[in-house]
Amino acid sequence: MWLARRLRLTSLRIRLIAVFALVALAAAVSASGIAYWLNRDAVLKRTQDNALIAFRGSLSGTITELPLQPTCDELQRAASVIAHAGLQYSVVLVSDTCSVSSDPTFSAPMVPAALQRSVTSPCAHCTTAPGRYHLFWQRVTMAGTPYLIGGTRVQPTGPTAYMFKSLDDERKDMDSLAWSLGIATLLALVGSALLAQAAASTVLRPVARLGDAARQLGAGRLDTRLEVSGAAELAELSHTFNQTAEALQAQVEELSAREHASRRFVADMSHELRTPLTAMTAVTDILEDEADTLDPMIAPAVRLVVSETRRLTELVENLMEVTRFDAGTAKVVLDEIDVSDLITSCIDTRAWLDAVELDAPRGIVARVDPRRVDVILANLIGNALKHGGSPVRVQVRVDDSWLVVQVADGGPGIPDDVLPHVFDRFFKADAARRRSEGSGLGLSIAMENARIHGGTITAANGPDRGAVFTLSLPMNPAVAAGHPLAPDGGPSVARPEPGAADGTADTVKRHDDRNDNGGNEDGTNEDGTVKGNDA
Description:
By secondary structure, the protein is α+β, with helices and mostly antiparallel strands. It has helices at residues 2-9, 12-63, 72-85, 113-120, 168-218, 232-289, 299-327, 339-349, 370-387, 442-452, 504-513; strands spanning 90-94, 99-101, 136-142, 145-153, 160-166, 335-338, 356-359, 365-368, 392-399, 402-408, 456-461, 467-474. The strands form 3 sheets. It has a 5-stranded antiparallel beta sheet. α2 (12-63) crosses α3.
C-alpha cells in the first residue's frame, strides 16, 4: 500500500498539480493575509479615530458647562449627554466625590490599570495644545467582546472621563472578510489544480505518445515515427526520436543483412565442403586400412591426414546442425522412450560403460526425440570424460513434470569466469588447446537441442569440486499443431528460389536431401564417434 502511494506521488502529472497547488496556495495565503491585516488596521484605526474625536468634542462641549465642583447628579447628566451626543459608546466620569456611568454595565474599576495610570499621571511628553485634553486609549477584550477604551483628565480640576466603545461590529466585519478571503483562497487552489491539470495534459500528451512509440520500437516495430508538432522543445524531442529510430532501423537492417549473408555463407560453405570431404573420407579409410603396410616414415603422416579429415568432417556436420537451428528448420520427432534404456544405449555405443557411473531407475518414460537427446547426452558425458575427471556420474530423477539428468565429474571444475560462456559457440576455456580435437560447438548444439524440446541445460560446480551439467526436459511437452514439437513436425519451410537474399533454408534442404554423403544427421559419424563433444 505504501509502495503504491509512493509510485502515485512520483507521477509527473501528480507532481505538476502539487507544485501548481502549492504555489497558488502560498500566493493566495500571502495575498489574503496581507489584505486582511491591512483592512483590519484600516477599519480599526478609522473606528478608533472617529470614536476618540467624537468623544473629545462631546466632552469639551459638556464639561465646560459644569460648575467647578459638580455634584454626582450633574456628573450623571453630563455622562448621559456625552454618551448620546456622538457615536454609540458608554461614558464613565470619575470625580473626587463619586463615579458615575451612562451604562450600568461599565464602571471605573473595569478600566485597565495601565490606562488609569497613564490618565492620572502627569504627561511629560504630551504636546496637546492648551485648553485641549490629551486622550489615552487601549483596546481590550471583555467577556469575549473587543472594546476600545479611551480616557482623559479634565485640567486642571475637572473629572476623569473614560469611554467604552464596542468593536464587535468591526470584528464581525473582519470575520466576514476572513471568510471571503478563505473562500477566495480555496477557489484559487481549485483553479490552480485545474490549470495544472490542463498544463500537465498539454505537456504529458506528447510524452505519452513518445512512450508508446518507444514501446513499439522496443517491440521491434522499427518503422515507428512521431508526428513533429507542438512547442519547440517537444517538436525537437519528436524530431530527435525520429532520427534515432531511423538510425536504429538502418543499423538493424544492416546487421540483419550481414547475419543473413553470414548464415548463407556458412551453409553454402558447409554444403560445398561435404562433396570433397566424402571423397577424402573414402580415401582416408583406405589409407587407414593400409597404414600398417606403408613405409614407417609415411605412416604417421597418413594417420595425421586421416585424423584431420575426420575432424574437418565433424566440424562441417556441426556447422550444418547450427545452420538448421539458426534457420528454424530443425525438427523433432517425439517418441515415448525409457530414459534408462536411452542413456545406457548412448554410453554403450561409445564404449563408456566402464568409465561412467549410471544411476537411472528403469520405468521413467518421457516423450522426447531420442536422436537429439542422444546428442545432448553424448556431448555432456563426452565433455566430462575428456575435460573433467573420474568418476563421471550420471543421475536421473523426475522433478514434478520434468525429467532431470545430472552429469557430474570429479575434475577441478569450471573457472568462474568461464561458466557464463560454456554454451557459447566456438568457445574453449583453455587457450592452450585451441588447436585440439573438437570444434567448440558441442555444448552449444546440446543447448539448442534442449531448447527445441522446451528444456534447458545449466552448468555449475559441485560442492566437492568438479563440473555439474544439469539437463531439464519436460516429461510430456504440451504443444499445439504447427509447433516444432508437435507430431506433425511443425510448419514446413518454403524453399526459396535460387538467388534469394537468404539461401539458408535452401542450403539446409539440399543438405538434408544429400544426407547419405558422409556422416549421419543424428550427430554421429559413420563409425559411431560423437561429433563436436568439445566445450
